[in-house]
Write a structure and sequence with these properties.
With 229 residues, the protein is of the alpha+beta class. It is 53% helix and 7% strand. It has a 4-stranded mixed beta sheet with strand order 2-1-3-4. A hairpin with a 2-residue loop joins β3 and β4. The protein starts with 9 loop residues before the first strand and ends with a helix.
Length: 229
């Protein structure tokens, strides 16, 4: 076990209304109670790339600044937290469940391109019916399959089932959190895509998390500040 006070974590993120990649490690760390300092950069500006490069040599955010090193990429940051803080249980203890949590997280990380393109994250907006292309809906159907399957096989049978994919909160939940936001924004009909109610309950849980509420409040504050600038 590593004491958090030994480290000074700084997490560089983009606009909370738009940056799905930033949400993932932010949510994992906030929900797990891992302290960090937030560095917020505004996206979609002429100066954005230069500002990012001040912190992240890769040119991408989120980026975790830790003891002089830069850990970039959402999944890498989440995995780093799981390794540094095993007591936070950011990965399942069971070997089979752990492998699948990593597999689903990697699938989310590298796949679902149609959903990303056609239903981009915009936390505060509501666009019912928009972006419902065949490709995006096929992606959602696969996500429903993952959520329903993980909940029935691992979550519902866990010693302490808190409603998450593997019973307790893991990095898989953090990786799928932006999808929850997208499905709320674009009002996808999950029942028509194979949901028996399990995925809808899971979405409601993620959306109601205190950390997610804080993220939405932060998005509102940022958008108001930008409108007044």
């Amino acid at each position: 076990m590593i004491a958090p006070e030994r480290f000074q974590f700084e997490l560089v993120i983009g606009d909370k209304n738009y940056s799905s990649w930033s949400l993932r490690p932010w949510l994992a760390m906030r929900h797990a109670g891992i302290p960090f300092r937030e560095i917020n950069l505004r996206l979609r500006q002429e100066t954005t790339k230069a500002e990012i490069l001040k912190y992240s040599p890769s040119g991408f955010i989120p980026a975790l600044l830790w003891n002089g090193d830069v850990i970039h990429d959402s999944l890498a940051i989440c995995e780093t937290m799981a390794s540094l803080f095993p007591e936070k249980r950011l990965l399942p203890e069971n070997g089979q469940a752990r492998a699948l949590a990593r597999s689903y997280s990697a699938e989310m990380h590298s796949g679902f391109g149609d959903l990303r393109r056609d239903m981009p994250m915009e936390v505060l907006a509501r666009f019912p019916g928009a972006g419902h292309t065949p490709g995006a809906l096929a992606n959602v159907r696969r996500i429903v399959e993952i959520w329903n399957g993980a909940r029935s096989r691992f979550g519902a049978t866990a010693d302490r089932d808190e409603g998450f994919l593997f019973g307790h909160f893991t990095i898989a939940d953090a990786m799928f959190a932006p999808v929850v936001s997208r499905l709320i924004t674009y009002e996808a009909d999950l029942a028509a895509l194979g949901d028996d109610g399990t995925s809808r309950r899971y979405m409601n849980l993620i959306w109601s998390l205190p950390a997610m509420q804080d993220w939405r409040a932060g998005a509102e504050a940022e958008m108001q500040a930008q409108a007044q600038a």
